[in-house]
Amino acid sequence: MELDPTPFNLDNLLRDLGVILATNLTHKPVALRFEVGDEVPRYLFGDTMRLQQVLINLGGNAVKFTERGNVVICISQNNNSAEKSALLFSVQDSGIGIAEENQSKIFSGFTQAEASTTRRFGGTGLGLAISRKLVELMGGTLQLESQLGAGSRFYFTLEFTLLNAQQIEQLNQAPQAQTQAAAQRLH
Ligand code: ADP
Known about the structure:
Order of helices and strands: EHEEHEEHHEEH
Strand content: 25-35%
Number of strands: 7
Distance between the termini: 41 Å
Bound molecules: adenosine-5'-diphosphate
């Protein structure tokens, strides 16, 4: 597996994530919240598809294993320089939680916290193994804090290169340019 970094807008990524996760939230009293620090830069260079895949996996699990309460996706800045920013991503839920003795097992692949989980919730037991690999590939470590019955928090820190003014302008023009090109082809 190799990374495929491109310029991206973090707000767009989160908007799409919200749409995807909300489809599984219609039938239960669970609120999905995004908390993104004002200090977090929005224009970044990184593997947006892989980052999105990890957040969909973690957010999807958080929604799946929470019957009521909240799923909160937080992003804050840990560290920064003129060209780079280290961002802390966390996906927190008020769901069933994971017993301590199962916490390391669930990252190994094809493993679920309880034998009964497959029947109750479905799933393959692969999402976390893949997410952990992807976070490592992007230079971070996927970590977990959880208590049985008291919810879970999965988190990781990744460093991104910031876009310069010209790259930001190009990114902002890209969708418009594509639409214009498509319109011209139609004429
Ligand atoms: P899947 O969700 O397909 O079973 P995952 O690898 O994503 O596979 O998760 C493995 C197991 O870890 C799940 O079956 C569940 O037991 C546990 N788990 C993952 N995320 C959560 C969560 N947010 N709350 C409670 N348990 C979780």
